[in-house]
Amino acid sequence: MSEQTTFTDADRNDGVEPDMVDQNAAPASEATGAGVVPMNMIQALNSAIDVKMAEDANVLSFGEDAGYFGGVFRVTDKLQQKHGLTRSFDAPISECGIVAAAIGMGAYGLRPVVEIQFADYIYPAYDQIVSEAAKMRYRSGGQFTSPITVRSPYGGGIFGGQTHSQSPESLFTHIAGLKVVIPSNPYDAKGLLTAAIEDDDPVVFFEPKRLYNGPFDGWHEKPVSPWKAQDLAQVPTGKYVEPIGKARVMREGNDVTILAYGTMVWVALAGAEHAGVDAEVIDLRSLVPLDIEAIEASVKKTGRCVIVHEAPKTSGFGGELSALVQERCFYSLEAPIARVTGWDTPYPHAFEWEYFPGPQRVADALKSVMTGGR
Amino acid sequence: MDMDARMNDKMNKKNSQPLSLRVPEPSGRPGDTPDFSHLQMDPAGVVERPEVGSTPYQMRDLAFRLIRVLDDEGAAVGPWNPRLDPETMRRGLKAMILTRAFDDRMHRAHRQGKTSFYMKCTGEEAIAVAQGMILSREDMGFPTYRQQGLLIARGYPLVAMMNQIYSNAEDPIKGRQLPIMYSAKDYGFFTISGNLGTQVPQAVGWAMASAYKGDDKIAISWIGDGATAEGDFHNALTFASVYRAPVILNVVNNQWAISSFQGIAGGLETTFASKAIGYGLPALRVDGNDFLAVWAATQWAEERARSNQGATVIELFTYRGAPHSTSDDPSRYRPGDEHEKWPLGDPIERLRQHLTVIGEWDDERHAAALKDAVEQVRAAGKESEAIGTLGQSRPSVKTMFEEVYATEDWRLIEQRREVGV
């Protein structure tokens, strides 16, 4: 579990130019007072933790390489230097231990924010998350709670192979007692992470690492535009909260609804543009709780639905979305619901772009549902 | 021989004898005479008591010894004698008696069909009772399912325990957990998981939080010999050592994990206390049936934790006298009289003997204590059964959908309506 530098390099070399990290953006940990500055997603996440740590002495952050060094993706950069050794520190390579310690701290009354270096490493912590954090409030009749945030970079598009690319969100959406949040841009990343830290229940917070430095849209041979050009990268330096459980309409449209989250939001936008279809693109932002009202309203308006995620198709969250749309919008549907997903294979290194759902596949699915699925 | 031939020869090297797989076996099975010759024990009073500030390296020998205070004649001897006043010892004895009486009644209640499940702690009463008395309710205990003595020693209402066991309308945790998986925050008793080992690294995290805040509370956890094989235990020891967490990490070695003897968890190769050594933690190995030894060792670890010197691992050497649970039948896998012949005796009888020897207890008072315990349990039983045994009463079905989250989302509201509540 120590190959991280290889993959941050791979990330940088793969269409993400160094200037995508906005050198002019104020490091969030140095932000003071009110104001709005352009931030990439790393800086926005850093700012969320920084602002909460400054506000609440019960907030602390730890994880593998997450202390002095600030994390392999730099999300916790300078938090230790600013807030002190005991508030942002390195943890042993023990995901079970990291989450279990956070659970104990949460039961004590702290609000730990822990980093699992890659979502692919979260499995040793699975029992602690599923059997312990998720059940704590319920099984103790409300005596004990787990107000913890488990942050983890997830998803592909960085030539990370099977151990640095997975999207395990549906392993957590299935668990009663957990919330699962996935932002797609710097503004939401900060507002939602702030909400997660303040949430009284455990939140699994997946960060689409392919979006850390720019809104990657899946056209992997083209350079990625930097975040600073985006409205959603204009981030207040002070505190704000984006409520968990509310979707964001990224593009209004009338002909088909695309449900996506994480990197796939930008792929969906590119796919719709490529297909020339008037699609409504909904960024779910939180899978649990899910903004069912936004989904229902949109699909009833458009009569068609395409679901996009990176995770494998079988038992992916798209299956749940598809069932919900069918249950609630059947009489509005004019075509079968389509899913564009990762394949039912492990994540392959050499076949990154055959595996990773790209805008062409989204465009094909859109054309297919526009012609009634035939 | 040329190079290729030499390489070939090396690669084809044969063992002097074929390899064989070893699977550990206990010293006795049903029908056998119990054999305790393999047990590593010391006579009472001979093990040195190191200074609380000793380094784990200086005191590593203690991981392989057995701290005992009460000798066969009932005298308290040696440097670990905590010199308790008789009243404290009488309180401990009565709490152990009450714990056993409670177990007996609830085991019977299961047999009578009043509940679905029960687990006794017969033979292990000294551990949770002594440790529950030493630490305060402000400290947090992260128990397994055999530390009911902690609640009883702290005066938690027996009727509340029974209500939980019956999942009735007054169950403090609303009928959501298997019987005996108590949760009692105000009594320093963390919600029992039922998954083995998970609570140990949580105890470390809780203790880290107390240190982080600069508070003065400590944590204490328990795990069985069998579950030390879980990764959680080793993760806990790493974190406890690295962050010098103020926590007492108990391993209750009661010899049996359901039907697997402690050798299946590695107990034939080394002691469970010695697991601490590799993590740089101090280890104490203690006669868990000796109330005074448990008391003294816990006090040593408590002092170490409270003085910011970190965690201690304590192996409490005992014997699981009862079946694992009401679903278990030990006559299928261990000698029937193994408990009866256990060389370290019974914790209640040993403390009773000591108090009698020093003139602070007698048969009459013992009989009265037994009678009082049975009466307390009977009165609580009457009260709880009036509320209802399993199925006779229960919390409102609506509560099934509550406290999954702080606030119910639309799914739970819809599903509750679907059930019609």
From TrEMBL, chain A:
Its EC number is 1.2.4.4. Keywords: Oxidoreductase. Residues 1-21 are annotated as: Disordered. The keyword Glycoprotein does not apply. It is an enzyme of class 1 (oxidoreductase). Pfam families: Transket_pyr (PF02779), Transketolase_C (PF02780). Gene3D superfamilies: 3.40.50.920, 3.40.50.970. Its cofactor is thiamine diphosphate. InterPro entries: THDP-binding (IPR029061), Transketo_C/PFOR_II (IPR009014), Transketolase-like_Pyr-bd (IPR005475), Transketolase_C (IPR033248). GO terms for molecular function: branched-chain 2-oxo acid dehydrogenase activity. Residues 39-214 form the Transketolase-like pyrimidine-binding domain. SUPFAM superfamilies: Thiamin diphosphate-binding fold (THDP-binding) (SSF52518), TK C-terminal domain-like (SSF52922). The keyword Nucleotide-binding does not apply. One of its GO terms (biological process) is response to nutrient. PANTHER family: 2-OXOISOVALERATE DEHYDROGENASE SUBUNIT BETA, MITOCHONDRIAL, 2-OXOISOVALERATE DEHYDROGENASE SUBUNIT BETA-RELATED. This is 3-methyl-2-oxobutanoate dehydrogenase (2-methylpropanoyl-transferring). It comes from Brevundimonas vesicularis (Pseudomonas vesicularis).
